[in-house]
Amino acid sequence: xxxxxxxxxxxxxxxxxxxxxxxxxxxxxxxxxxxxxxxxxxxxxxxxxxxxxxxxxxxxxxxxxxxxxxxxxxxxxxxxxxxxxxxxxxxxxxxxxxxxxxxxxxxxxxxxxxxxxxxxxxxxxxxxxxxxxxxxxxxxxxxxxxxxxxxxxxxxxxxxxxxxxxxxxxxxxxxxxxxxxxxxxxxxxxxxxxxxxxxxxxxxxxxxxxxxxxxxxxxxx
Length: 221
Description:
Strands 1, 9, 10, 11, 12, 13 and 14 form a 7-stranded mixed beta sheet that branches. Strands 2, 3, 4, 5, 6, 7 and 8 form a 7-stranded mixed beta sheet that branches. The chain is 16% helix and 30% strand. It has helices spanning 11-17, 35-42, 48-52, 118-122, 139-143, 208-212, and strands at 46-47, 56-58, 64-74, 80-86, 95-98, 104-107, 110-113, 136-138, 147-149, 155-164, 170-176, 187-191, 196-197, 201-202. The longest helix is centred in the first third of the chain and has 8 residues, at 35-42.
């Protein structure tokens, strides 16, 4: 995985908060931001679920290179690196390559890989998600849609999305903490740095009631 400058997990958040109202803090989450504050990150960043996964990626001549199939996340730094499925036909013979995240940008509502060519990308080494380094996880296989447990093995929520900030780091997971017995929806933005990954996804000190008491997150319209 191409590594980026390591940024403290809440550094970008702190910069945004410097000119806004202080967020609600809770022991379970470390630091919780309001919808307005998280959507400020999204204004120039990405929602993994809604704007990255499954999206086509193009070169600078608008030639399609492949599709974003996954995002690798460094558990220590939070650095996020998309994987593109390239080559093959109708998924047959396709392999996955790591995108230089610093070269990935949005242009005319399309994802563009600056400096890439179709032939050069096909020549990149394939990434085997079954053999990732210990410090990396696959967002698609290990995080998105995963049930979240506390230290008592109680299920406290489900990961619905991950927010990739403008500096290409995954700072927040959108966690569904709504009641299983009712149709009420209650999503909260939890710093990724608060999660532990040890065979499953954990918020060790969380309880469902505590998460439901946090400010609800809603995407901006």
